[in-house]
Design goal:
The complex is a heterodimer. By secondary structure, chain A is α/β, with parallel strands linked by helices. In chain A, 27% of the residues lie in helices and 26% in strands. Chain A has one domain: Phosphohistidine domain (Glucose Oxidase, domain 1, 3-Layer(bba) Sandwich).
Amino acid sequence: MKTFKGRPVVPGTAKAEALVSKGGFNTLASYQKSLMFGDKKGTCSDQNNPDLYGKPMSGKALCLPQTIGSTTGGMVLYCAAALGRQPACLLFSKPIDSLAAAGAILANVWTDISMPTVDCLGDEFLEYVKTGMTITVSEDGTVTVE
Amino acid sequence: MKTNMVLTEEQQAMLNGEKGEAMAKVMKTLVMYGEAFGAERMVPVTSKYGHLVTSFGLSVMKPVYELIDKLLEAGAVSGQKFSVDPRPLDKNVPSNFLQNLLFKFMYSKQKSYEEQLEKMGLMNEKAFTCTCYLDEVGNIPQKGDILSWAESSAVVYANSVLGARCNRNSGIIELFGSIAGCVPYFGLLTDEGRMASWIVEIRTTKLPEAQVLGSAIGMKVMEDVPYIRGLTKFIGTQLDDKTKAYLKDMGAATASNGAVGLFHVEGLTPEAAELGEKLIKPDARTYIIDDAELERVKAGYPCIWKDPSASPKLCFIGCPHLSLNQLIEWTHRLESRLKELNKEKVSVPTVFTASVPVLEAFNKTEESAKLAKMGGITSYICPLMYMNNPLCGKMPVITNSNKLRTYTTCRYYTDDEILDIITKGGK
């Protein structure tokens, strides 16, 4: 078990199974298919992301460095949240990027769902956490991995 | 809501709900967005026009249209007119019965969404393009303008080639900035945020393919600002039409294959010409790009066609949308290649995409009829949205766009390779 301290961009609590992307998370490419065809599991459709491609993202603790790609990214994340297909939480090793921040904040202000978002967890966090591990997020941005 | 940001009286009043709940939520979103990046204040949006990324009435994007309805009901409309990304449908582009059926289902909200856009502040019905900054379209920010835009390829172009200032805003956020008339001051809006933390040294033997160079840079520097050296020996130091088109295509690849929002080209782009090496951070890292590196990057693109040896059924050229000169140049290249091969028409249906105003200008040139005669199809469509139709995504489609490759099943080829493929075989 290991604990990491980050900055809560959208504070909240969550407990979920980790899903880890070592490379940048391309939000549009990842959600494109699942949003379009009503796939409630939010199966990742980004063929350029070998860590996530084909894996369900809904309800998972998504661990990633940052998001990349199209500026529809935040809107796509907002839609996933408004439709109840969002990850349980978003955990960034690096400082959050503008698209992910937009998605997390839009979901917070304009929907009733909870998707705690923590950034600046450090490279060590992403090195330590493996897909399938259990993640607990606290209000103050503390993330426990076991 | 409490905030550490220093707001003007008007902004604070908006946040407190004095202009209604919808405006309060718009401001709350912008304030939280600013706080996430350490912004201390808002700055006014100074460009004449905005640009929105969301141009498609996708039925599953219902939450977005509901949100816009809420804003319209509350009278929260954009304070500036705006252009918007290309339309997702155009009957000029070949599609079969089943594909059309699915298109109708997928984009069932297109008409109602376009009505929303009009009420919200769309420039005009021709303002659907990702290349809003081209002369024919006329949404051209001035150097130093503060923008509230989205569309990664337009943002990187406005920042880098025009010297305007815009963050890589997400869809919806860009609209909120245009509604509130202000954006949080951070990142690429600040002098510090525009400093380069990478030096990219171009050491190739010839002009790199714009789309591959952009891809290599994007994948390496991700969201950082690169300062590119060694490119002007190939493209010169004048920001003429040809150079701007090159930077448009290169930039789109840096933004989609990575998350670049601004690049400087030594001796060429406005800030690099003005400030030179002063733009480079002291601890900047260096990335050397030679022929082998470009080859390595290109060889790394996965081919996700079911049958990698399938013959292409369609080709898209123009993501981002083509400029007038690019359309003319493609016509000339195609004409001379077909002549060499003693052929009249392309063997693969090839769609050249550009904005409506650029296509109208092209239609006035003699090249327009020539391109049509050779089987070239012109369209204002967004090829990405065409490829999003899974029945289209299953087809072997080729493109010279690295952005299209990244988001769809399209296979990438260089311009020269595309020219070979679309002219071989057939009559």
